[in-house]
Amino acid sequence: MEGKVDNNMKSIKTWLNQLKKDLRWNISEILFCIEHTGVYGSILLRELSQRSLLVCMENALNIKLSLGLQRGKNDKIDAQRIAEYALRFTDRLNRWQPKREVLVRLQILIRLRERLVKAKTDISRFNKDAIRFLTKQESQLILKGTKKPIETMTTQIKKVEQDILRLIQQDENLSRLTELITSVDGVGMVTCSAILVKTNEFKDIKSSKKFACTAGIAPFDHSSGKSVRGKTRVSHNAHKDVKKLLHLGAVSVISRKGVLQDYYLRKVAEGKNKMLVLNAVRNKLVSRIYAVVRDGVTYQKNYQYRLEKS
Questions:
Q1: Alpha-carbon gap, residue 71 to 87, rounded angstroms
Q2: What is the pTM of this model?
């Protein structure tokens, strides 16, 4: 059956009730497969979750690539393709589980911070261009007009970061995981909170290799037969926000004396590409994060192996 439903609570509830009435069988036996659309699917997900219905959330790119060459695109066609995907790959679908409420709030604060940082960066870049290309009088007008907004956003960013820290400290599990993760040199509160949300407290992404792939820092081979001889490179299909945070952490850690700085300088001296080595450092950070979470022990920077005498 086909139909159109408005994206609001009243319409969704009416649709589900009508669906139950028309089909005349247990609605809990229906598989609801939806495409990941971010905040736009929140109302539907909330209602389906409250009714304890079976939900699968799939990446839009997975659906697109799985169905081969496609022509045309609108809401009706998209819905048909999602239904076809769910029917063909039922055995591969994973049931969607809602995150804990504290993680949902943490995710909202992270997104808010990202928007504020982006807005501040855009204005600051505009100011730099004005100083560079405009006259002094013209640039002063822009600087004067943007001074107050930049100060306000700077204050608000700090406030959001304090809210993130407070939210984490009030939850026992998040507080424990944060203490472990931030013990790794190069990993701060912002990176830690993003990892907690992306991994759903390490419930959804349980291995460092899978997380590295998700974050877009895992290298993949690009060669096939005799015709394809591409360089090993990372995939662009990744969570770029996490990748950026890991990049900043890697840059920070190689700028200070330590094992990772020594590793970076040694590999560069051997002739390795700097970005390739930096990506290796990002992977080392991820491996360390997963190691401390797995073992439940904070990272020991000066740890030395002890060989027992026989």
A1: 20
A2: 0.86
pLDDT digits (tens, 9 = 90+) for 67-98: 887 777 888 888 899 999 999 998 889 888 88
| CA distance to 3, 63, 97, 114, per residue, from 76 (Å) | 9, 15, 26, 33
Own/partner pairs for 103-108, CB < 8 Å, 24+ apart?
103/174, 103/196, 103/197, 103/200, 103/201, 105/167, 106/164, 106/167, 106/168, 106/174, 106/193, 106/196, 106/197, 107/197
Domain ranges of the chain: 9-92, 101-170, 198-222+235-295
Q: Tell me the C-alpha distance between 223 and 125, whole Å.
A: 40
CA dihedral angle for residue 200, residue 203, residue 208, residue 210, rounded to 10 degrees: -90
Helix H, strand E, coil C: the string for 228-265 is EECCCEECCCCCHHHHHHHHHHHHHHHCCCCHHHHHHH
